[in-house]
Amino acid sequence: MGPLDAMQLDIFEHSRDVMLRNDVLQALLLRDAPDASRALQALAAEVPQDRYVAPMQLLLSALQSAVLPPFASHAVADDALQTLHGQIVPAARELFGDADGTRWLAPLWRQAAQRCARLDFRAASQRAHAAPLWLHAAEFRAAADAVASIDSWRRIPAPLGWMAEARYRLDGLDASWGLLAELAWLAPARFDALTRHLADPLLGRLRRRFDAEFDAESQAEASVEGGTGDLAWWPAWVLTEKPALAGRLGQARPGLAEPPERTMRLLLDLLHLEQQARQRELVEQRKRLRDLAPAIFKAYMRSR
Question: Counting CB atoms within 10 angstroms of each CB, which of 36, 66, 111, 132 has the fewest?
Answer without folding.
Answer: 66
